[in-house]
Records
---
Amino acid sequence: MRYPQGGGLTAERQQFREELRLKAAERFAQGEASSVIGKDLRVSVRSVQRWRQMWDEGGPRALRSQGPASLPRLSQKQFAQLEAELAKGPAAHGWEDQRWTLARIKTVIGRRFHLTYTIQGVPKLLVRNGWSCQVPARRAMERDDEAVAGWVKEVWPCAEGSRRPVEPGSSSRTKPASP
């Protein structure tokens, strides 16, 4: 299951889900039906059936949390160093323009820390550490927002014209001239 911002479950949420599975295990031992357990614990019957199969094969230990699916490969100290590198800007790393792309950040990670990340792994790393992806607004440096607002208010309504037809129309699409 995927979670927003690529962060996975928090430790509290992992604990909550583990407790649900262990409650289900107690009820498996009592011989209750999966549909009753699912309804009471407010989970799908399919989840309960999967848990029951794991419980049959490995007992209650099989239902314990396995921890996070993957641990971050960059430590907090290394990520702080990466942030410092990103703050220097792309020009300091040999790129001509001032845009950070995922491929460029991946390259910096590889050069600096000798780790290979996938393009898909870079935004997960960044979002996990509080960054957000930004898309630059394509606007001219010389743009005057006040002049644009004035033009939209004063000139555009005159240029656009009225949207209502002047003469009475017809409700028929096939015979527009019919009365």
---
Amino acid sequence: MTSGNDQRYAQHQPFSGHQAEKNKVIFYSLSSKFVDEKSAQKRSSQKVQEVVYYSLAIGHHLGVIDCLKSRLECPLTGYQQWVSCLPEQGEAYRKLAGVQRFGEINIDSSHTHLLALALRDARPQMNEEQQGWSNQLIALLGQIESDPAMYLMVRRYDA
């Protein structure tokens, strides 16, 4: 039986026989699309491609299943300390702190610039491990900039 809180979140299937570790925050990225992008791009105008991207973005409302792949994992306490390096009144802090409040957040193209700049500017307050997480997240944000259909889903796993 699942608790009411468990039912609020999508259930992510770990790879064969692997359960997500407790007390972690995991960043997932969209890893599969149900569109043949190469052939679609060759024969489609920019406007048609935008419609395809929009359709993928709202696809979960229509029953399309996104395939997500784990890209970055942090221990929960480490994540909280990492986020606390950001200015507390800033939008980047508010966005990333949402993992603690809601258990799950999405990061899309509307967040990339804001988060990348905040992580870059906070580097002096971070330890080496946190700087490594920042580098990984900034690289993922760059991928979102290159592919507007990509997004990150960040989920907290509690004990």
---
Amino acid sequence: MEKVADIASDIGEYIRQQRSNAKISLRQLSKLAGVSNPYLSQIERGVRKPSAEILQQIAKGLRISAEALYVQAGILDLPTGGPVGDAIRADTELTERQKQVLLDVYESFRRENAASKPEQAAQAKTEATETKESA
């Protein structure tokens, strides 16, 4: 139960920070997001844990990605892939399905390369040993 309260507090603080960065009042954000002012205030104070749908509305109001709020709220895992993954997710010209396919392919290449690294290290060590022996 304590973990849920921590998550609600964390997401509330994150929303407050994003709202502050955007220089939007609580009342303005509640209007933009279509959420009541008291409810938004409760979310920011960590009293309420918003649903994914409410987070999406808040994200639209803040003009940030809903995914960022989902990660912060613990609904989604932190995305992997670094700047490439971020660029794919941010591309407005791609559909969600296209983004997911690209991310899946990219991650499969990363896993394949990570799996081959121990083999490459062992091969380089063998080659270095052979070079020393023949010298």
---
Amino acid sequence: MVPEAEVRDVLDELQRLRARVPLLSGALAASTDGLVLAHDTPGVEAEGVAALTAAALGVSIRMTDATGRGGFRELLVRGGSGYIATYAAGSSAVLTLLAEDRINVGRLHLEGRRAGARIGELVDTALERVERPAAAATRAAPPRPATAPDRALPQRPT
């Protein structure tokens, strides 16, 4: 899980992105398995979008693998009244942007890629810090003596 300080940094990045690109109607950062990290999505259920993003990501990864196009980078969906763009954000997160139909798609990609890279750095760095102490604690713990499964541990006399 990403620590609260980094979640706040991710939310700040989403809000700055929305301020830079006025035709964005929502921005969401999620783990690759569909858990919301941070969102600025007025009027949209963030948990549902994160879950759908994870499903679309799974299909996209399979498509890039099957066609030999390399690792997943981005996905763009155009609906009748706007766009949904999803960008890789480091090794364990994705950025999904909701945009109005009038948006300049080139600008959407430029800003989305930059924000995805920044969010990826924040999330990956936070996860490394969280995992590093846990791994060190596991290595530092003395091994526990094994007991034979058919022998009971000694009991204190009563």
